[in-house]
């Protein structure tokens, strides 16, 4: 007995469906059609070295905001529990109703870049001889690659009442600035003791492409574009009672821009242990090995600033070059 008693019209249409010819099976070696006769992927024909056409897959690039959709981690506890985070404690204690926030530049690694940095960290761990427990920022607990970043603010804590106003002012300050898209390059390894944390970070210092030999402004203040962005981000943070980033660099007796310019970096690892001086020097010299020469030639494109407020990430594009808009060299009065 049938489970469903179809009407005569339904039965007729069902029979016509059953009478359709079966799908053709894919022939051996046919990489362009699937078992249902549909293209299996977008392909482009090109002439190979032997003059015969070859096929290669072409995928459209992801939009720059795609990664923002997956920037949040799973909340494991509603209270600060260092045991869930390798002993780490919040730099800014969580207050119910407040929104932990951060302004930064994101660097999404390509597969070759990720593989190279993983090898770099492994070589550094070899130099540490197991005497220092080094945690890396390259890979998640699930084994997937993570984006890195260059900070443009300290950890911030915004109230529900002012978080939207903060985002509006930060967006306005960044987009009204004279900083056009630019690029920075990894330069040297260093150990960095954060004034906000009891951790020691393994960092890669970055330099603007304009600062490198042959660059347009070689010999000037280091990282002028990043310094210009930092001024604007710090100005907005101060308006909301938040501490500025790298203020201690300006207070050490050096020229403000010169002192701050050397501070920008990408963190690739951290530890609670203090490496001995000799071991520390050996570790940071690893990047100078010839096998990592390519790393020092990479260019990290900077076309936007990210504003993370709670679990939401907002994309703030930089301005475009034009009259009165020279990367890192504001010609108009500061926004704030």
UniProtKB/TrEMBL annotation:
One annotated GO molecular function: poly(U)-specific exoribonuclease activity, producing 3' uridine cyclic phosphate ends
Positions of the UniProt region annotated as Disordered: 1-63
A Pfam family the protein falls into: HVSL
Keywords: Hydrolase, Lyase, Nuclease, Nucleus
Gene3D superfamilies: Cyclic phosphodiesterase
Top-rank taxon, per record: Eukaryota
Extent of Polar residues compositional bias: 31-43
The name this protein goes by in its record: U6 snRNA phosphodiesterase
UniProt organism field: Clonostachys rhizophaga
Gene, per the UniProt record: USB1
């Amino acid at each position: 007995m049938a489970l469903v008693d179809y009407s005569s019209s339904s039965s007729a249409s069902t029979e016509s469906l059953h009478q359709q010819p079966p799908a053709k099976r894919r022939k051996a070696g046919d990489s362009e059609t699937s078992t249902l006769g549909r293209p299996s992927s977008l392909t482009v024909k090109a002439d190979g070295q032997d003059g015969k056409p070859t096929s290669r897959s072409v995928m459209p690039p992801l939009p720059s905001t795609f990664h923002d959709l997956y920037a949040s981690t799973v909340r494991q506890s509603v209270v600060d529990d260092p045991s869930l985070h390798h002993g780490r404690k919040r730099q800014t204690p969580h207050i119910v109703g407040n929104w932990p926030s951060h302004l930064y530049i994101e660097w999404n690694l390509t597969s070759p870049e990720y593989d190279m940095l993983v090898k770099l960290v492994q070589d550094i761990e070899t130099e540490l001889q197991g005497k220092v427990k080094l945690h890396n920022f390259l890979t998640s607990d699930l084994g997937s690659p993570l984006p890195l970043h260059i900070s443009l603010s300290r950890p911030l804590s915004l109230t529900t009442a002012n978080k939207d106003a903060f985002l509006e002012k930060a967006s306005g300050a960044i987009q009204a600035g004279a900083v056009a898209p630019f690029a920075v390059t990894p330069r040297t390894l260093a150990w960095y003791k954060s004034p906000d944390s009891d951790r020691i970070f393994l960092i890669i210092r970055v330099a603007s492409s304009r600062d490198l030999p042959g660059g347009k402004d070689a010999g000037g203040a280091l990282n002028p574009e990043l310094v210009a962005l930092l001024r604007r981000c710090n100005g907005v943070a101060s308006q909301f009672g938040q501490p500025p980033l790298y203020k201690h660099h300006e207070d050490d007796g050096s020229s403000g821009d010169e002192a701050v310019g050397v501070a920008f970096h990408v963190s690739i690892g951290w530890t609670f242990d203090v490496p001995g001086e000799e071991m520390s020097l050996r570790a940071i010299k690893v990047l100078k090995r010839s096998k990592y020469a390519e790393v020092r030639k990479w260019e990290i494109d900077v076309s936007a600033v990210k504003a993370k407020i709670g679990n939401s990430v907002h994309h703030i594009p930089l301005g475009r070059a034009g009259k009165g808009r020279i990367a890192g060299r504001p010609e108009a009065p500061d926004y704030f």
